[in-house]
Specification:
The chain is α+β, with helices and mostly antiparallel strands. The chain has one domain: HIT family, subunit A. Helix content is 20%, strand content 19%. It has two helices and five strands. It has a five-stranded antiparallel sheet with strand order 1-2-3-5-4, covered by helices on one side. The protein is globular.
Length: 123
């Protein structure tokens, strides 16, 4: 069993915490004991899903060594969702961090983008 370091299990002001709690509806395409996956409301690719931990961590910059298993579970969930979405030609996983990194919701989350060719550089 994964042990998550102490911290906020949820923030009453956080949009993603409200989605996790079911206070705001979302079309959950994935859920396990650690995270949920749902479509982004402003998709940037034919497939654009968010993978959000149920435990509130503001950003990857605030993750600690004790979050390693949780972070790994997010990546594993992304791979499982990608298989379910038939993204066999490839996909991109993005983690925006902070204002300059483009993070708009202060709750760690992965963007899973696919269904088209991804250009490089992305920025």
């Amino acid at each position: 069993m994964m042990k998550i370091p102490p911290g906020n299990l949820a923030s009453s002001e956080c949009l993603f915490c409200k989605i996790v709690a079911g206070d705001i509806p979302a079309n959950r395409v994935y859920e396990d004991e650690f995270c949920i996956g749902f479509p982004d409301i402003n998709p940037q690719a034919p497939t654009h899903l968010l993978i959000v931990p149920k435990h509130h961590i503001t950003s990857i910059a605030k993750a600690e060594a004790g979050h390693a298993a949780l972070l790994g579970s997010l990546m594993s969930a992304a791979a499982e969702i990608a298989r379910g979405e038939k993204l066999s030609k490839g996909y991109r996983i993005v983690v925006n961090t902070g204002d300059d990194g483009g993070q708009t919701v202060n709750h760690l989350h992965l963007h899973l983008l696919g269904g088209r060719h991804m250009n490089w550089p992305p920025g």
